[in-house]
Every structure is written in C-alpha cells, then in structure tokens.
Amino acid sequence: MPSSKTFTVNGIEMFVREQGRGPLVLLCHGWPELSYSWRHQMTPLAASGYRVVAPDMRGFGRTSAPADIEAFSIFDLVGDMVALVEALGEISAVIIGHDWGAPVAWHAALFRPDIFKAVAGLSVPPPLRGRGRPLETLRSNGIENFYWQYFQPPGVAEAEFERDVDFTMRAVFARGFTDPAASLFVTEGKGFLGDPTIERKLPEWISEAELAEFIASYRTSGFRGGLNWYRNIDRNWDLTAPWHGAQIYQPSLFIAGNEDSVIKGLIGAKRVHDMERVLPNLKQKLLIDGAGHWIQQERPDEVNAALIAFLAEVTERCS
User: Fold this and answer.
1) What's the Rg (C-alpha) of the chain?
2) 182-197 pLDDT tens trace
3) Active centre residues (catalytic)
4) Following CA atoms 246, 249, 251, 256 in sequence, which dihedral angle do they give, to the nearest 10 degrees?
C-alpha cells in the first residue's frame, strides 16, 4: 500500500503518495483530480520494480495553493517536479502525466532532459506551440464559449463548482469529455456542468467510495488552485517562446482513449497524427478503443501494461 508524506518543494508544501523501490517514476495528475487518480497504477508499477511517487499537484488536494494566479505557470509546475526529485534524494526520474499533468510531463522533459530521462503523456498530446496565444486565437476565430474562456474570470467557475461538490465531481466524471458539444463548450446561463436537475450516473469505472475521496478533498480545498492553471494558458505561450519548434528527444509514450474529445476533432486529431514531429523517439502511440478521457482510471489494465513495458525498456537504457 502507498505511504504518504509532505515535502517542502519550490516554496510550497507538496503532499505525495509513495510506493516501491527502484528507479523513480513520477505520476502527475490533471484537473479536477488528485494523486488518488493513480490508485490503480501505484501498486502494479511498484511491484514491477519502481519507486512510484504521485503528488497532489500545486493547488490541488493537500498541496499548497499560492494566492497569486501567476504562481501557476508552466515554469512553476515543472519547477515543482524538479524540486520533488531532489527532495526525494534522487537525480533522475521517468515522468508520466495525465490531462494537465501531461503538459507538465512534456515540458519537464523539454526543459530538463538531464533529470527526466523518459516521458509519457496520457490524453493530452505533446506541446506544439502555435503562432499566437491560445485564448487570443480562440477569440480571433470567433469562439467565445470554449471552457478555457469560461474558466478565466476568477471566482466564476469556483462558485459553480463549489455550490455542490458532489454534483460537480459526479458530472465531470460521468461524461468524461467524450462529447465535445456537452463537455468543451459552455452554453450561456448553464455553466460548465449543465443542468443540475439531470441525474448524472457514475460510469462503471468509479465506485461511490472512490468518488467520495475526490468529493471530500475538493470540499476542503475548493477549486481555485486547479483553475489557476487555466488562467496561465496565454502566459505559458509567452514563457515558452525559447522552445518554439523544439523537440523532446527522450524515449516517449502516448496513451489516450479514442473516444476522448481532446484528441478528436480537427485540431486534436492533427496533434495526435503529427506528434512524431515533437517526439522523434516515440516508442508507442496507444489509442484504446472505446475509452474516454479518464484513461488510467477507466482502463487501468491496458494502461498499466503499456506503462510497465515502456518503463522496462527506458529504465534499462537509462541505467
């Protein structure tokens, strides 16, 4: 079973779950999730010979949530992972991320290849820095209701999500970003979650007891910290200018559900198709049939098998 501990890293207090011994593997969760999102991965990876560490990321769960929006840039998030490796007494790691954790993992590999010797991203393809700031590009294309935009004004999404945390978590996990019309665009007056009178049945991959872990945590922490990640999207574009067109040369792996709207549609499908431009040492591009966005929770057996095979190859080469 995983143990837990809190480390001081990069100016914040970071809660982590840890299990196993061997080469270090960091598991970075996304939004609105927690280190608990990796509950199905920690024991199998530890049993395969790895020291597996899953933090509550900056602003989530039992980890600090700084007051300033600017404290949630991609530099801060990657800096946390760099500092965590050091705090754990290690000098290198394989980094794996899902959802927002995937950009953290990809950029960690991009910024610090001396530390992060291999990288895997789940559900979100590697960074392909566009010609303009993402939010400005949306507006210039006449799009005003994408969920990134809804999340920008401080306090608006927080108020919706914190009104009934049980409903919020049930609604987010129930639809799983498989329906772009329902999940990624916000209907005016209905908020991100939609009509609260419509019952949201839990999918088979999460139990009421598991959902209760997320609900209890978010009732305590609120949603401000995680939403501040979205409020740095344009700022991150500015900060990453020196890496425009850069490639990630370390061994890499990509896993996603083929029903995940993040990788569907014109832009998402193109990013998946072209990811070898960013990842010249891509070992596998695994698209799991019938799966949605919460891939490591939805389909743990397939995800674990792919991760363990990847880790076996890359840690052997790195050792």
Assistant:
1) 18
2) 568 888 888 999 888 8
3) 99, 293
4) 10
